[in-house]
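Task 17 of the worksheet. Students: predict the tertiary structure of the chain below and write it out as structure tokens. Keep your answer in the requested format; marks are given for formatting as well as content.
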Amino acid sequence: MPKQILRQIKQRELTGKKIKINPWWCNDQCIICKNETQYPHPTPIFVRRFYVEGLGQMCPSCYYSTYCHAMVNDEFIEEIFS
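Model answer:
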């Protein structure tokens, strides 16, 4: 959590002020594994990689495991590991 938010939480406890969260401080989460991605929340979707319209942002590992499984065939795996 950024230091600014922690400072605001302490001030809220003391004085009752509102907490102002800058959306650029918070990164989106992967829709599958819930890990934090590299993109802040207000980043436009046309700039993002691994964004799926209608679903949301994915991390690279979840994206490749979901959409790119046909790129690797059994012969390729045997060639690498033999």
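Marker's comment: Strands lie at 27-29, 36-40, 51-52, 56-57. Residues 3-81 form one domain.
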